[in-house]
């Protein structure tokens, strides 16, 4: 199976063109586990398939390293767009991509025929508890107390097609993400698990984040999570609506517009191509 390794600010993916010969559905979880294994496979934070769509230009499916399927991936969809553009599978610097979280509109920012960044309309954030698949009474989850691994946290919930909780933490640099991330991800309040983000607010227009991704562990970046962090910042009166988000792998510009849509702008890079034995 031919593949292309790509990354969006360190969030890395194995891209497979499955237009002509899509893998068997039953094989996809195990294929993702094998390909994303960093010791015995290619290594990545997800397997992304390029597929045909009847509703958009193309369809994207993304599988986590543990074999579970994600609804959406912000960094992955930017890589998806660059992959198509570089291979002349699209001729215009804009496209629509079908995902499990709905159809996303993308604009490629190019210079001299090369993609410098991709701007993605991530859609309207969903804020009800049910959008997080979280136990409890209906309504928004803003600075709500939860106890995990012996410590109390205040969580704010935001769904960007996939579910996130955001926790504001000033001492972020040495914070034990690998301890508390999985404790919250698998908390009994979240029967389908949850993505967890720890955020330090620098000022109204700048934040620093660290992420524990559902099914992947701590990653260098999470696009949908960066969007959720900015929405949570606004809901808690900690940030403005146009924010530079610093992640371990790089920076994203996130804007929560006046018409309630979240726009994400950031880079995508190709690393190498290869063939994987299946």
Ranges with pLDDT <50 over ≥5 residues? none
Helix content: 10-25%
* Largest sheet, strands/sense/barrel: 18 strands, mixed
Terminal residue distance: 7 Å
Mean pLDDT: 97
Helix-strand topology string: EEHEEEHEEEEEEHEEEHEEEE
- What radius of gyration results from the CA coordinates? 18 Å
Structure annotation, total helices: 4
Number of strands: 18
> What is the 3D shape?
globular
Alpha-beta content class: alpha+beta
Kindly estimate the percentage of residues that lie in beta strands according to DSSP.
35-45%
Looking at how many chains there are and whether they match, the oligomeric state comes to single chain
Please tell me about this protein's structure.
Helices cover 16% and strands 42% of the residues. The termini are close together. The relative contact order is 0.18. It has 278 residues and is an alpha+beta fold. It has an 18-stranded mixed β-sheet that branches.
